[in-house]
What does this fold into?
Amino acid sequence: MISDNYPPYNFRNSQGEITGFNVDILKAIGKLYGSEIEIEIGAWNEINQKLKDHEIDAIGGANYPGYPDAEYLYTRSVINASHCFLYNKKYTKKITPEYIRTAHNPLICLYKNDVLTHYILSLNPNASFLYVNNYTDLISCLDRPDVVCAISKRTRGLYFAQQLGKDYIYNTSHVLLEQSIGFKIDRSATELAQMLDNGLEVIMANGEYNRIYEKWIAPYNREGDEWASYLKYIIIVGILASISILLLMLTNRILKVRVRKRTQDLQHQLELNSSIVAELKEQKEKAVESEKMKSAFLANMSHEIRTPMNGILGFAELLKEHAQNNEEQLQFIDIIRQSGERMLTTINNIIEISKIEAGVEKVNIDRIDVRKMIDEWEKFFTIEARQKGISLVVHDRNPKNKGFFCSDEHKLNSIGTNLIKNALKFTKKGQVTVEFELRATELYLSVRDTGIGIPQEKQAVIFDQFVQADSSHSSGFEGSGLGLSITNGYVQLLHGSLSLQSSPGEGSIFEIILPRLNDPIKCNKLLLNGTSVKNIALNNLKILIAEDDDISYNLLTHVLQDIAISVKRAHNGEEIIRMIKAEPETDLILMDMKMPKMDGESATKEIRRFNTSVCIIGQTAELLESNRNDIEKAGCNACIEKPINRHKLLQTIKACLAPVEELA
It folds into this structure.
């Protein structure tokens, strides 16, 4: 048993749990032996009587008597406790025995203790005492100007001073009435005594004791601050001593410099001047190069944004002001779409390279079907290759290996598409060849083209941001110059390697080796194969749209008009919660993640408290890979990024509304 009110050694906290230093010591020893030590609490007199009556086996936090005890066993010392002087820093700068000895009728606050009383009277026979019965009163009495100091157990006194918010209560380093504290054990419980003794030795050796001590005792067992009163004088003396030493060193240095100057020859000065000129020239060249890159970047970004904007705004104006036939209208709309996709690619590239440079891009490990991914590359880029009159060839070096690969699916897809897109862009005739091999612990991927090639002097910087082999606008090649920089950044994040072989006029070969990044949870999960939602009919749906932007809402109403029987709008999270409560039969909620008053994530969490059946699809203008987990964790069935792709949105709705058995 232990005392029920002796913090921080043992006490019952505000939740009613038994806790404290001695409790953690017993738990650590019990864990070490794989045994549970039953701990009970009670008043100190009560638990001592129970030990005497053999109703319990041991007491924690007992003082060693200092003489042989035939009735009880004692463990090694758990901790040493002592008394000290406590004083109010507002009234007294410091307390020492000499201060008490010379004080006129000092008033001392303490628990009634004959030893401590006699000690104070031996210092000053005129001292008077203010006796208290608890530590709250002991600490509070120091707020009285007539109280010189208090005598308290060091750890307990500082604990209560902190609990009462009295940071102006200080202690001295004088040790009074030092005591060793440990476990007092019934002589019949020899096995328990041995377990506690040996356990204490082990936890002191393995560091567990230090952890418990730092948690409970160290914050309230600091040394007194008497040195603090001398600190300013020590600092002043130190500064004066340092200044004196510096003056001596400076004088010595000046004398040495004067002697050296008298013996210096002209050649040394000329060499120094030459070094300065060379350094200034190098800095100037770097500044000029930096200015060129800055100008090239601004010009390139202006071109890459203004060019598609010109197409979007120009052809939108033509659609608005002039009557065209259906063929021309479709042509104009296609140009607007292509220009928008080009500008979106530029913006996404800038965001991705910014995240890489800022060090906030994270790796999300998934189980990837590499062949399926590369098949999608082949289907997507074959159309572009045919339009340019070149061929796209995909070769699997090891078709017998049908396994999956563990890595970041988004980054691997970005690496492959960037390299293929880059190869197609700079190849006017011939072919682009994609080779891959799925090995036991790594993935090999190469993209070879018969394009313009890269000069040797440009290969060192081709992976830098905003750099192309020919960055002039007259080169005829679109692009922000960020694709290879993003690719290189992603390869490094995935702990892979990227190499380049190229010759002008002959083409280039980019080779990548990525190691398998094993995640025991994500890489062992089963992929949903054969899932099909194509035949699910979408009609007569009741839809709620949470969207504060008018243009985005108008777009969604047009996209959804063929599948909805009703479409209603909420401007913020609070409004969508009220609407779904009023219309619980709603089939679908399109939830914007960024809204005033209450955002989409908070609104989704609140809706899931009372409606778990409605399909909720989150919309985000941020890159989806960076916040997909947060959106789905909030309770969304799926998520889609802006700008909204109609086909992708409808497929997502089908998957969300599909019966469970179809997705099994």
